[in-house]
Amino acid sequence: MSAACLVRLARCSGPYVGRSGLLQTALVPVPLQQDSHLQFTVFKRQLYSPSEQRHSNTRFDPDSSGRPTTWDSFGIWDNRIDEPILLPPSIRYGKPIPKVSLSKVGCASLIGQRKENEDRFQVSQMTDNILYFAVFDGHGGPEAADFCEKYMEKFIKDLVAEESNLELVLTKAFLEVDKALAKHLHFSPNVPGMNAGTTATVALLRDSIELVVGSVGDSRAMLCRKGKALKLTVDHTPERKDEKERIKKAGGFITWNSLGQPNVNGRLAMTRSIGDFDLKNMGVIAEPETKRISLHHVHDAFLALTTDGVNFIMNSQEICNIINQCNDPKEAAQRISEQALQYGSEDNSTIIVVPFSAWGKHKSSDTSFSFSRSFVSSGRWA
Q1: Rounded to whole angstroms, how far apart are CA atoms 319 and 296?
Q2: Lowest CB count within 10 Å: 18, 201, 317, 343, which one?
Q3: pLDDT tens, 348-376?
Q4: Is 331 exposed, middle or buried (0-12, 13-18, 19+ CB in 10 A)?
Q5: Is there a single domain that holds both residue 214 and residue 162?
Q6: How many domains does the chain have?
Q7: Contact 10/21 with Cβ under 8 angstroms?
Q8: HSE of 218, CA atoms in CB hemisphere, 13 A
């Protein structure tokens, strides 16, 4: 759809427009329409189960082939998530961009076999055009995860007001939160957990199209594109050659526990985290690795943020396949967290599932086995 057509639509609508309004605008005699003899019939929208074949609610069959022309023929989407179109971003980017609603996001967190749940997660509308998603997996106590849950969004929001580069915003926010946590623990001598730490995986979605992720530790972010898992984060573990060399250069050392898992100074199974201040001089840093990606709403089905209680027992493609079998993100989040425990995870299992416009479009039929399921996750402490 041309930007001129979107501008024309904006003059007649508010900041949002439904798909029916977009379709009617797209079908008037404008340059986008090539065949003037197209005939169409509008069918009533229905609900479908994951196993049923879905059809577009609008059918074009000019050559009597029986093959419908769907929304994708217009370069848009065809799914079961019916969201309004954001006009200002659509005009800015020159293509229809649907609104991503927090009400459809699925979240789940189970305690597993642990004495307490040290996982934390958060979903919010941070600014008018930025959504905030985060998971924190605490260790050595919940103090660090609690602090991040309470203050990370505030630090990011303050930085966004001055800096437009979201990757730079996340980097500064992680480092500032780490410093603030150190001060908090130092001036709160009665607070336990001086050596507590946490992973942090944060995703910012601006204008429903610009996705930026920052991460420390082994919590993950994954995008499902065309039914395939696209990893947006890489675990910070001593198994990574670059991370191991950085730890050794800082004066730290690597040991292996009885399950063959490497640990920094025999204690921590990750090389980056927020907190863990006794290991800061040994190379454990709070600086995140960041990634920026533009969503393709025709192909992108969902974003998933997971903690290691899920990751150590299920690989990314397996998570992607299971979610693709679910009717909605809330069901998907619950099923993944429960599945991890059934597979033998002893850790807290937490997941956030954010649906995009290709939700329900790509069905995964292939199976994917996670080798890590042969082991029971032992946590971060040797």
Answers
A1: 20
A2: 18
A3: 999 999 999 899 887 655 555 554 544 44
A4: middle
A5: yes
A6: 2
A7: no
A8: 23
Q: What is the mean pLDDT of residues 256-267?
A: 90
Q: Are residues 249 and 292 in the same domain?
A: yes
Evaluate whether residue 241 is within a structural domain: yes
Q: Are residues 176 and 32 in the same domain?
A: no
DSSP classification of residue 53: P
Task: Look at residue 224 and give its three-state secondary structure.
Answer: strand
Residue 17 pLDDT level (bands cut at 50, 70, 90): low
Same domain? 80 vs 120: no
Question: Does some domain include residue 381?
Answer: no
Q: Which of 245, 236, 224 is nearest to 332 (CA)?
A: 224
Question: pLDDT confidence of 99, banded at 50, 70, 90?
Answer: confident
Burial class (CB in 10 A: 0-12, 13-18, 19+), 271: buried
Query: To which H or E segment does residue 103 belong?
Result: none
Alpha-carbon span 125 to 142, nearest angstrom: 25
Within this chain, do residues 190 and 66 fall inside the same structural domain, yes or no?
no
| In a domain? residue 122 | yes
Asked if the structure places residue 379 within a domain, the reply is no
Is 335 found in the same domain as 236? Answer: yes
Q: 178 is written with which tokens?
A: 């780490």
**Which residue in 193, 166, 190, 170 sits closest to 275, CA to CA?**
193
CA distances from 256 to 151, 237, 378 (A): 34, 12, 12
Closest CA to 124 of 87, 143, 161, 150: 150
pTM of the predicted model, to two decimals? 0.77
